[in-house]
Design goal:
- With 243 residues, the chain is α/β, with parallel strands linked by helices.
- It has a single domain (5-242), classed as 3-Layer(aba) Sandwich (Rossmann fold), CATH 3.40.50.10320.
- Helices cover 39% and strands 15% of the residues.
- The chain has 7 helices and 9 strands, in the order βαβαβαβαββββααβα.
- It has a 7-stranded mixed beta sheet with strand order 3-2-1-4-7-9-8, sandwiched between helices.
- α2 (49-63) runs antiparallel to α5 and α3 crosses α4 (110-125).
- The longest helix has 17 residues, at 198-214.
- The radius of gyration is 18 Å and the shape is globular.
- The model has no long low-confidence stretch (mean pLDDT 94).
């Protein structure tokens, strides 16, 4: 299956928190989106690898993604190794996405930073014909996606563009709420963490409101690109004339 968009995340729930509204918006517009988690989040303070896997698949159902996979890279040890690099290259060549999303390369969590660097290296390596990979013993052709975009997690950045998620914010939060072990639950007896505090989900909403307001919308999600992006002025104006 070829995908339009492939989102890589260090842990289950990263993609939903950072760009769940965008994923839902793409799906509502009949675009095929996949999420690939690098780790199972087994070092997380709350929950287990097994519960987080169930939560991840439930969230994928909410967002109506075409693919949800886990590469089972060790949590807390996302090395930029040949083994991990090949796992990502195989996934990109398998699904041939037009666009890849990855964590921003500066963040509070070292795994997010390591994942960002690994995905960027894979984006280059996957286009090299002399790097040979196999999917279920079948040789893969080299392939390079058109763009790599970065999503925001804890640390902020000046966005290259913001996606209006006003019509899919509720789906984003419904997907986030699938991770019942990770976020605020007054009945939980597990230790409190940075993201289990009730203020954390309020922050997620406030940030979406802030970036939405920045573009004259209710909710928005910010993204960064290291390359220049073309803006199709003519078709944008034609679209406005039809509305």
């Amino acid at each position: 299956m070829n995908l339009d968009v492939l989102v890589f995340a260090a842990h289950p729930d990263d993609a939903e928190l950072a760009m769940g509204g965008t994923i839902a918006k793409l799906g509502k517009n009949n675009l095929k989106v996949g999420i690939i988690d690098l780790t199972r989040g087994e070092l997380g303070t709350r929950g287990t690898a097994e519960t987080r896997q169930r939560e991840a698949f439930n969230a994928a159902l909410v967002l109506k993604t075409s693919v949800r996979e886990n590469l089972e890279v060790p949590d807390g040890d996302i090395k930029n190794s040949k083994e991990n690099l090949m796992k990502v290259v195989i996934a990109i060549r398998k699904y041939k996405p037009k666009i890849v999303f990855a964590p921003y390369f500066n963040d509070r969590h070292p795994d997010h930073i390591d994942a960002s660097h690994l995905i960027k290296r894979a984006m280059f390596s996957t286009g090299l014909n002399k790097i040979k990979t196999f999917d279920k013993e079948v040789p893969q052709n080299h392939y390079r996606p058109e763009k790599l975009f970065y999503y925001m997690q804890t640390y902020t950045f000046e966005p290259t563009f913001i996606v209006d998620i006003s019509d899919t914010f509720d789906l984003k939060m419904k997907a986030v709420e699938c991770y019942g072990t990770q976020f605020h639950n007054p009945k939980s007896k597990e230790p409190e963490t940075f993201i289990s505090k009730p203020e954390f989900l309020n922050y997620i909403k406030s940030r979406a409101e802030f970036f939405g307001f920045s573009i004259g919308k209710i909710y928005g999600e910010p993204f960064y690109c290291e390359e220049k992006i073309e803006f199709d002025l003519v078709n944008s104006l034609r679209k406005d004339q039809l509305n």
